[in-house]
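User: Can you help me understand a structure? I only have the sequence.
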Amino acid sequence: MDDQTHSVVRAIDQSPDVVLLLVDDEHRATLADQLSEADITVVSDDTSTLPAFDVCIVDTESYPAVGEQLRRRKADADPVLLPVLLVLEPGVSETRARELVDDIDDFLTLPTTERLLLGRIRAHLQARRQSKHSSLFRRAMDKAVNGITIADAGDDEKLVYANDAFLETTGYEREEVLGRNCRFLQGPDTDRSTVEEIRAALDSGTSVEVEILNYRKDGSEFWNHLSVTPVFENGDLTHYLGFQQDVTDRIERSRELNRYEEIVRAAGDPIYSLDADLRVTLLNEATARFSETDQADLVGRHVREVFGAPHAAQLADALLSLANDDQMGTTIETAVTDAKGRKRRYQTALAVMPADEFDGVVCVSRDVTEHREREYRLSVLDRVLRHNLRNKLHVVLAQAELAREQTDDEAIRNATTTIERAAEELLNLGETARAFHDTLDPRWGEEVSAVDVATHTRHVVDEARLSYEDAAFVTDIPGTLWARTHNAFELAMSEILDNAATYGGDGVEVAVTLETTGDDETVVVTVADDGPGIPDVEKDALTSGVESDLQHTSGLGLWFVRWLAINSGGSFTIDDNDPAGAVVELRLPVAAPPEEEVSGQ
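Assistant: Let's start by predicting it. Here is the structure, written out as tokens:
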């Protein structure tokens, strides 16, 4: 019972008792004196409008004038009792009185003693007070936010009461549940051991509290936090009082949290949480393995004791930056020493726990030592190969030219020409790789920004017309069109047009179109030619993004175009043109022009 209900109960118990006295003058004074001795307030009034009262005493002469009012008062008060006593003159029987009046709760024959009068009145006042309590509790149960039911202890524990919250939770109407045992809420996946636990408690007359899977009328499942309490009267078990609360959301959240905990425990990367003082509050097994210390022994330790002082210092600096920038997460990379004394590099993602004040942080650390070492080695290899390749190919070209000049043998001269052509192709390949070097990084960075792709495309088309006089270039390009792309966009367009013009042959027509999609969220760049098209092997490799031993391309240009599109958050496709040729399509996110461009218009 809540405080508000308690206060109403106290008000009922402490309210003054009022008896309305509607008898003739001969008996009124005597009855009033007898009642006033017991601190009972007595009121009497004309019969046109009756005042509020707890018990009414009326005689047979007054009743005809007030009978209709009393009936209305009793009906309005229902289910609270409003007792009416009829006083009888000596010699008048109750049977005769009932023929004359209706809705009388009790009879009192005059004259009467004070003891008898007070006993009868107090009994009716107590009954009225109890009916007020019952009505209050009934209204409280009816309006409770959780389900409340009452079942008869006998006759298969059938329900005799169910409140609105129970009906709303289960989806049944009141007439569909009253008179039935609550087992109708059970279903195929209801745990039988839980049902047996409830049954055992009912049989022994003890309380029970469980969480059980129940079913609504429409067949949907819900988790029911059920409490059942036996009710005894004079030592006999009479009823069961049940409380039901729909805890489906809590159960599902708990299960989801359990799944997350299982994932965290099974993760191979260290995952741990720190409090505001950067002391470990939770950790997984991978964290314990890193430090070769039991999980329980790490709880409460400062993060520097687990990952070292440099890691702790960088983590603290990152958290300070997050607080200053009002951010919830960031990533740092630190050098740490593991329990075996090995130098490692760890990338740690930090996420601040949501709270009004800083309450801690969750960290997920990943060992990137091998990854970073591979990057360093590839960088060195890339730099050495590109530098040495260029130098060595220049030597090859010089020697081939010298050999051709010093011989009249036509076969040797043809061979040197082939060597020169292959060396030049390799040089061009190296130059392409250098030009597109930045697009190899799959991570977005400062190289991706808002670019006026219309202006850049026109520049590329103008240069292509000068370089390929035998090709026809047809364009449909708007004045300006801004897209979010890598700053190597113009170089990528040059690769696409060069590829179309070079392999299209004499008289090839290349159509270049720029437009936006209907939702104005994507810029579509299309280059279509009517040449021989791109071989299926190369087209399939570029479309899938994977080369195999039997499926590979002959150059790097279109690969770099594909990587540029992906790094820009877009896409790259190649299709056959009709009736011949190829269609290359770039899709890039639409971008707003930079502020200086807008202000300069």
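Now, to help you interpret it: The first strand starts at residue 18 and ends at 22. Residues 547-554 have pLDDT under 50 and may be disordered. Let me know which part you'd like to focus on.
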